[in-house]
Write a structure and sequence with these properties.
Chain lengths: 346, 346
């Protein structure tokens, strides 16, 4: 991003470096975007641990919302929520406050360059992102009994299911699988599946199937090749996206888009990994691939492709951070060296 | 069970053949138990599809409860709950009515005799079996909004966590892993993990760790060898036990025990598979291994060992039902032929 601040054509985006490994991987990503000539003007906001500890129980300052509402595009490093019941998950707060209803998580094999037992896997999880047990409604009934409310609404189901079918059609994908537990939760998960069938009827060109989440997860874990687009509710999506990402070789490889009607947020699917923070060894690929999705979103598909290709070339040449194993050549590098290697291949 | 009905030393057990593949696999199992000289006197009850359709919305007749309360031991074939919101899951009704709080699900590799990518896996999932979203409390708020209540109680957590640690100690296992999502559900899942820590303090001889369920599931799917005993709440346990079982080679290989203070139920972890019912090709191993756990429970460990060894010998010689793949010799047989092969090796 040559002269980012002064070029009027640059798209303003909000950036949060995050906690733990967040600053390392987010800075590495920004460096690559800059070198690729991304036409962006980053505005930095502080969120996460320091903000929580300064007394904002949601982990975000009021002024940060202003930036997000103005730029409408957010590149977010992973953050740490301090433990203790007084702290609400900022990830959830942001998703709900900004109405980011669709969490899009592609999980793709890069075999043979990244070792995986499932070289043919190429699936996308479309996870509902605002409802379910994530609605944040928990109470203490008595000293001994606690409850959490799982909330499923028809508008919520319609939005996510419609999104999944439109996504499949636009990306030329062939099948959408719905995963629910409607044999037990006949009303809530039953509604999700009912809406899937209703809206699915408008997409006769796309194959449709349903799995109960237990055996569906088991199939993802053993035969991920058989899936294409998967649409599911919030908690199931959380679980199966970690499974699918890890099976491609590392949970550190997956980026995601959180899409709303007005704002979109891009991030890695992994957390802030405090155990390896500050060592400069984290894999920046997750947030980098999130940033690639962001570039497509802000209509810089040319730059997105360039960055993606340079990243692929790096991985294919066996230049990997420590979390990855390839079949062939192999050189384990630091976060910064990995970023430099991507830049050199732009 | 020679002269089962007339021998006063035989232990009365309640048996339900179930729906779908249930009758085939349950009869195959009873045949093997009989040939092994199990000292049992089966009492048959009808449950499932026919009972539902005859107007009992829970899928079980009042008289069947009487048998269960008397024998206190239940060998149960998989059953089919008709779809439609009027029918409650009988599995859940039985578990809750009889207070079967601990669902014990061993998932063990039989490599190289059964093909798996994880030859060293040997884990046991201890799943809480009465609470969580399975409490069966769902409502319709408006035409468009549905809710399901996740219920977690301190006594419920204490019972299952205590069971897991006692199980680990008795079986000589080294580690208990707790899986929760307490970064989001701070009260409910938070309580589960708090109780895990409290009770864990009484078992300093056993290694203890916690995983968030998303990355925990991902690790089961990629590195199951690292787990030993896993204790978790109902829905997570449902999902990860299907994953772990499928990874051993087939979900058809896992049996389970549902343990209460007064009654215990033994079953396969898979369902009634109506798509292959009546073809005589289903794998009876799940319910057979459930029956082996039952024999240990009724203090016939000698017979249990004999049946288990004969089953292992059958599998090791490459005699498999159609759902299994071995590395070496391989003969695909029917349900009945498989049972005969086990009997021949008793
Ligand atoms: C960190 C956590 C709140 C979050 C979630 O549960 O959604 C994460 O696991 C994810 O998948 O983005
Ligand atoms: C059939 C179904 C009600 C049951 C469950 O969800 O518990 C099954 O999946 C299991 O794991 O035993």
């Amino acid at each position: 991003m040559k002269n980012a601040q002064t070029n009027q054509n640059n798209v303003p985006i909000t950036v949060a470096l995050g906690d733990g490994i967040g600053p390392e991987i987010t800075r590495a990503t920004l460096k690559i975007l800059e070198a690729a000539g991304a036409r962006i003007a980053p505005e930095f906001i502080d969120i996460g641990e320091q903000v929580y500890l300064a007394g904002h129980s949601s982990g975000i300052e009021p002024s940060a919302w202003e930036s997000l509402r103005r730029t409408r595009v957010f590149l977010k490093g992973p953050i740490t929520t301090p433990s203790g019941s007084g702290y609400k998950s900022l990830n959830v707060t942001i998703r709900k406050t900004l109405g980011l209803y669709a969490n899009v998580r592609p999980c793709v094999s890069y075999a043979p360059f990244v070792k995986t037992q499932h070289p043919a896997m190429d699936l996308v999880i479309i996870r509902e992102n605002e409802e379910d047990l994530y609605a944040g409604i928990e109470h203490r009934q008595t000293d001994e009994v606690f409850q959490c409310l799982k909330l499923i609404s028809r508008p919520g189901c319609e939005k996510i299911v419609r999104y999944a079918f439109e996504y499949a059609r636009q990306q030329g994908r062939k099948k959408v699988t719905c995963m629910v537990k409607d044999n037990i939760m006949k009303m809530t998960d039953g509604l999700f599946y009912k809406v899937f069938q209703e809206i699915g009827a408008e997409y006769p060109d796309i194959e449709q199937e349903r799995y109960i989440i237990d055996i569906g997860s088991a199939r993802i874990a053993t035969r991920p090749e058989q899936f294409d687009v998967i649409v599911t509710s919030n908690l199931y999506g959380d679980i199966i996206s970690d499974i699918a990402a890890e099976m491609t070789g590392s949970v550190g490889l997956a980026g995601s888009a959180n899409i709303g009607d007005h704002v979109a947020m891009f991030e890695a699917i992994h957390g802030s990994a405090p155990d390896i923070a500050g060592q400069g060894i984290a894999n920046p690929s997750g947030i980098l691939l999130g940033a690639v999705m962001m570039l497509v979103h802000i209509r810089q598909a040319d730059v997105a492709e360039q960055v993606h290709n340079a990243w692929l070339a790096t991985i294919e040449e066996g230049i990997h951070t420590g979390d990855l194993r390839g079949e062939q050549t192999l050189q384990h590098v630091s976060t910064a060296e990995f970023a430099d290697a991507v830049v050199a291949r732009l």
